[in-house]
Amino acid sequence: MLKLPIYLDNNATTQMDPRVFDAMKPYFLEIYGNAASKSHPFGWAAEEAVDYARGQVASLICANEKEIIFTSGATESNNLAIKGVFEMYANKGNHIITLSTEHKAVLDACKHLEKLGAEVTYLSVGYDGMIDPAVIEAAIKPNTILVTVMYGNNELGVIQKIAEIGAICKKHGVLFHSDATQAVGKIPVDVLADHIDLMSFTAHKMYGPKGVGALYVRRKNPRVKVTAQMDGGGHERGMRSGTLNVTGIVGFGKACEIAKADMSEESTRLSGMRDRLERELLTLEESYLNGNKEHRLPHTTNISFKYVEGEGLMMGVKDVAVSSGSACTSASLEPSYVLKSLGLDDELAHSSLRFGLGRFTTEDEIDYTINLVKEAVTKLREMSPLWEMFKEGIDLKSIQWNEH
Amino acid sequence: MAYSDKVIDHYTNPRNIGTLDKSKTNVGTGLVGAPECGDVMRLQIEVDETTGIIQDAKFKTFGCGSAIASSSLATEWLKGKSIDDALNIDNMEIVEELALPPVKIHCSVLAEDAIRSAINDYRGKNGLEPIESTKIHH
What we know:
The complex is a heterodimer. By secondary structure, chain A is an alpha/beta fold. Chain A has two domains: 6-11 and 263-382, Aspartate Aminotransferase, domain 1 (Alpha-Beta Complex), CATH 3.90.1150.10; 18-259, Type I PLP-dependent aspartate aminotransferase-like (Major domain) (Aspartate Aminotransferase, domain 2, 3-Layer(aba) Sandwich). Chain A is 39% helix and 13% strand. In chain A, the strands form three sheets. A seven-stranded mixed sheet of chain A has the order 2-8-7-6-5-3-4, with helices on both faces. Chain A has a four-stranded antiparallel sheet with strand order 9-10-13-12. Chain B has helices at 5-12, 65-78, 83-87, 91-98, 105-125; strands at residues 27-34, 39-48, 53-62. In chain B, strand 2 and strand 3 (53-62) form a beta hairpin. Chain B is globular, with a radius of gyration of 14 Å. The interface between A and B is medium-sized, with 31 and 32 residues.
């Protein structure tokens, strides 16, 4: 029996895996020590749990456990990486290279640093959301200290050529940070093979708890350091003070262990369902896939249904939780800057839906979603003046619109 | 954001969707908004030329649920009204009726603009001066 509503917004967050919850349970009431308390068994038990989790997290990304800095989430990790590198390597230079399609946690951290004297290059991506690594190489200057490029895009699912970009950074002696929030746990990520120096990721995108994330900080070739952005007890090798969220960290570790064990099978299952959903929805006239089709996360698809407005469409598919690049869904009233960065017309950006499948998505849910979206698009087009004009062969660009 | 029951009702069962023959002299058409802004409303009225009463009203809207509901409600209110009374429909009445939240007030403004634009189209076709919009929107 199908349970409504259906959750297809797994790029926003995921449902916790019950196995993760089970692992966390003892750490709420029974094992409550402070992992930094070195003088008694309460602290030792907590420290042991954190160490174990650190190993689970490191193992997922092919890192050493000493290279994992626990944070409150990917936003904090991104801030710590970018601001921390800018401060730590100030004597080396002040230039940072990033992409216009990055998450706000990266873009706004960069904007903040511009006020403090940083020079930031925001590179545009191609129509498919990809950046040509050669474009990054061409942007590197003698004063460049950091390149920061997202691993898999949150809105499109597009995966950048991270290993190539990493190799370029290594060749030029520039640090490379990747916001891998959407990628870690979904696809194999190897910080060594990818030449990544710093990497942000979080538990709640991979069926773990909210409020805990990590920053990978390379310890060898080169040894990377970031200036702490919070002063205090000097936890996490002095890079991130604050009592460790032991319960969350235990959950994060378990989530990483499960992700690693199930990844191959799970990504095959998810991409199969995603492809079916996508194929069916693209049979609708005037519907378009956004972003590169090949270099993509297995669980994400972003489709524009032309002449239908995204928020109106979401209301029509209210039994399915998705997200839209439409203006009306956000407080800003601007359509998605990621979709606009691809060079998409505002009109197409307003018409987009993002589907994010997850571990608990079923084939029945996909069937239901296909039918519901098809019905809603058809119904809304019947009441869309733009659809009528399109059908009459009127070029919408020839109309003098009175923008309000 | 949760929608009010009335918005959901108009969205689910929109009143008066359709197209009137815009070439007829007693049909006024208003097309407002822009695709780039994510809102386009087309509102049409058919006027009984002897009485000046709006005998039919139709709409088509590209936009969010509140925009669809605002235009659907507008057509309901327009039918049976004289042109002069129709001009008195205020966007804040739409806001109240549909319980629109502040971020959706622009949908009601757009509906009021569409009414005005349709009436002016009708007036223009019948050799009358357009009504200037002197009102400051809320």
